[in-house]
Amino acid sequence: MARPITAGVDGSEESLAALDWASREAVRRGLPLRVLHAWRYTASLATADRDTQHGWVSDGVTEAVRTVSERHPELAVSMDVVEGGPAVILADAAAESEMLVLGSRGHGAVVGFLLGSLAQQVIAETTRPVVLVRAGDRPAAEAAGRDVVVGQHGGPEDSAEVLRFAFETAAARGAAVRAVRAWTLPPVFAYSPGSLKLLDDAGGLEPFERKALTEALRPWRERFPHVPVAEHVEMGSAGQVLLSAAARAQLAVVGRRAHRSAVGAWIGSVAHGMLHHAECPVAVVPHA
């Protein structure tokens, strides 16, 4: 059975934009759509018992589903209203989905039932891609010839899942992929005889980085021969280089490795920066 694309909704403008994005992506990929709302009973509403509050929530989600079904009659849509902790509910739903799609305010916390560190927790806990969509997202951005921009680092295996997602998405949209690799000068103490030989063989630092990007892209070019690919190698901060490249993208794809500390999960500076500052939707894909 095909995994659905799951959209988390809470009635906010951002989450409805995410639902719209998820529905279009589900149609393109021929996948079912699951519409999910996580809620908590509010005892302070003395005039409304649990069943009444559940009814209010269900009515709102039903209306959103009705709108999607009218817009995409060929799409198989299901809905769930689940009571409990949002982080657990969303992470569990993501594990069963092709991807999880959520609304994002940008330049700050994720809205609705995802506030502050909770967004990072959901992204860090799931092994599936999570896409964050802003309220201003419009279908026209997908039809304007804009690229799917993806960040690549390390060797071919390090970013295989990130590149897979980018190429699959571009193929479904008839779009091009712009693969971005940023590099910086290493500190003197990082040099070793082995690394110096690799750099000499490649002809220097920048040619070495270009060769590394080409090698990482080779299997995906072969697998998706009809997807146009542009390679972008630039010296600078990975976050800034990727953010600049994504300025006119229809989607930015970035990898992440979750880091844990005493104060919670941290998804990495590049993913964190893209989620807060990119104008386009951002897909965060866990590394294998």
Walk me through what this model shows:
This protein has 288 residues and is an alpha/beta fold. It has two domains: 5-137, HUPs (Rossmann fold, 3-Layer(aba) Sandwich); 142-286, Rossmann fold. Helices cover 41% and strands 22% of the residues. The protein has nine helices and twelve strands. The strands form two sheets. The protein has a ten-stranded mixed beta sheet, with helices on both faces. Strands 10-11 form a two-stranded antiparallel ribbon. α3 (86-95) runs parallel beside α4 and α8 (238-245) packs parallel to α9. The protein is elongated, with a radius of gyration of 20 Å. Residues 107-116 have low confidence and may be disordered.
